[in-house]
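Final report, closing paragraph on structural work. Over the funding period we assembled a curated collection of sequence-structure pairs, and we close with a single example.
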Amino acid sequence: MTTRQAVWGIWGLLAAYGILQAVAWSIGGLPPAPLVAVEMSAGWIVMLLLAALATRGMRRLSHNLTEAEHAGLVQTGEIEQLQVQNAMLQIIARSVDVPLAFQALAQRIARLVPCERVGLALLSESGTEFQTYTARVHDEERRVRPRPEVVFKADRTALGAVVRSREPMIVTDTSEAAPDYLDINVLSTSGFGSALLLPLVSRGRAVGTLNVVSRKSNAFTQDHIDALSPVAEIFAVAYVAQQLQIALAKHHTMEAMSELTIGISTEINSALQTIIGHCDLLERGYPDTTLQRDLAVVVRQAQRIATLLDKMRVASHDRLRDVAETVNQGIPSSPEGFG
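Its predicted structure, as stored:
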């Protein structure tokens, strides 16, 4: 029974009692004695005051219960959010693999923000396209590892708009936004009515988006943005760390390859100089024209090989420097930062 029903019940009983009393007087045909009338009036006043006090108390109790219930829901949501963040940190501590962490946490994210699908879009190294991952939160995940499903260009997509602005986007009705964005058009044709996109931003760097979609229109609000923002920030930090880890591995590989290339080129160059020196001695010791012509061809080819080795050494140093700059500078903050 609700508070309103209880209040109506109290006042209904009083009204029924008054009607019954009026009917009894009309049947009896005699007005009550003055003393009885005073007593009845006093009784009615007391009953009305008690009913008013009971109504006020019940409304106050209902208000307190509503506030306590709201506070409980807020606390439950905060606990769920902390559990999601803790699970993310544990997964990332074991392995900096953002798609794998996303797949493992998709259902927890859906408990924070009710939705039909959870999506992750990661900006490529070139900054021109997004690799998107999707988790169906109401179905059992059968894949061991997530795979990119659709690749969207940064231009004319809501993903690109969110990354460029670094601000969340709520699409209340996908059918209205479909003409403007290619990715929203895909959602609309797939039967989804609304979407929420949050940028993955770490230290001013936007590297992708965290997305939730619903088949209902107007399914997302600012409260959902507030709930998912810390999760998106952790994803952003993890992805930047993953990219830097990959860049660092490339740096170590290029460093090893450069050292190997320089070492081998030095050995080959030493052998070439020996060949050139012996050709020079042969040319001086044997004045035969045919032999000298052949020796000149050998010397030219040896010098050509030496020049190619020098170019290989320079290219190795340049490539190593480029990879080192990538490690030191990280990845650009948005598509405009590339190129």
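Residues 222-285 form the longest helix (64 residues). The two ends are 66 Å apart (CA to CA). We thank the funder for supporting this effort.
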